[in-house]
Structures are given as C-alpha cells and as structure tokens.
Write a structure and sequence with these properties.
The longest helix is centred in the C-terminal third of the chain and has 27 residues, at 153-179. The model has no long low-confidence stretch (mean pLDDT 89). The protein has helices at residues 36-55, 60-63, 75-93, 106-109, 115-137, 153-179, and strands at 145-146, 151-152. The protein contains six helices and two strands, in the order H-H-H-H-H-E-E-H. It has one domain (21-29, 36-179): Four Helix Bundle (Hemerythrin (Met), subunit A) (Up-down Bundle). A hairpin with a 4-residue loop joins strand 1 (145-146) and strand 2. By secondary structure, the protein is an all-alpha fold. The protein has a two-stranded antiparallel ribbon with strand order 1-2. It starts with 35 loop residues before the first helix and ends in a 5-residue tail after the last helix. InterPro entries: DinB/YfiT-like, MST-like. It comes from Jiangella mangrovi. This is DinB family protein.
Amino acid sequence: MSARPERWTKSTVYADMWVDPDDDPRDSDGVSPDGELPTLQDYLRSYRLTLLMKCDGLDAAQLATRSVPPSTMSLLGLLRHLAEVERDWRGWVADPAPKLYGPRDADFDGAVADQAVVDAAYADLAREQAETDALLATFPDLGERVGSEGIAVRELWVHRVEEYARHCGHADLLRECIDGRVGQ
C-alpha cells in the first residue's frame, strides 16, 4: 500500500458515498423495524452487507493486502476473523467448538493471496453466521440468561453488532488504501 490510490466511488449522486442510495442493498424501504430484536437483527444484517460490499470486486491479492505494519489486518483476514468469532459466540451459549483456523491470530496470519483461501473464507463466514443465527433464534427472550456465564441474550446480540461495526470501520480504511474506494 505504498502508492496512494486516487479516491473513487460508484455513486453518481453523492461523491462521498459508496453507492447511490437507490442501489444500496442495506437500505430498506419504509420505516425502521419495530421492537428490540428486529432492530438488532436489522443492524447486524446491515453491517454484514457492508463488510461484503467492502470486499466486492477485489481479487485474492487485494483482499489479502495488509494494513500498516506490524498489523496483519486485511479484508480477507476480517472475513476469516468474523467467521471465527461467530463460532466463538456460540460457545458463550453451548459447548465451545474448536478454532477454525488455529491458535490466536491464525485468522489474520493465514489470510494469504490464494483464491482457495478466499473462497473458503466466504463459505466459512456464511456457514458460521447461519449457525449462530439459528442458535440465537431459539432464544426469543433477550433477557434470558444463557451459557455457563449466564450472559443475557441481548448482550450477545449487541456484542455481535458492535464487532461488525468496528470491523466495518477497519474495512473502510483498508479498501480505500487498496484502490481508493471511499466508505459510506
């Protein structure tokens, strides 16, 4: 990332936006959802889509491009990391599953410019998200305490939203450094 790319956008309406509002898959028609759980689900869905949008159109080498040394963060690493934490969150409720990628930081360290690694990362993320979503769907009462630590289901939902939101901020900066595409 030594060369500074020129900033760019797909938006024709607002030059500082990622895409035009009418083309943004995160925005839905109508009002926001009613209720706490639908609101949390809507925010999580939006941040998940944001992460995928930040990775869209990049090849394996671009996805594996590291941020500033000594960090090992990359967009591909973020995909792998979020698959790993989705799996970890299920361990807050039930028996922990083994790590997907190995010991600490293997999710980032193993994010190499190989299309098979990229394909596996997307598949792992989709699978782990679906499994965590399915588990949490069995707990509609957000105040219910679960797992050996007695964590409230609400706290788990909020933590998920926070994790994706934080990493979408990282993804904004990573993408802009890779090819100049601005965030939204």
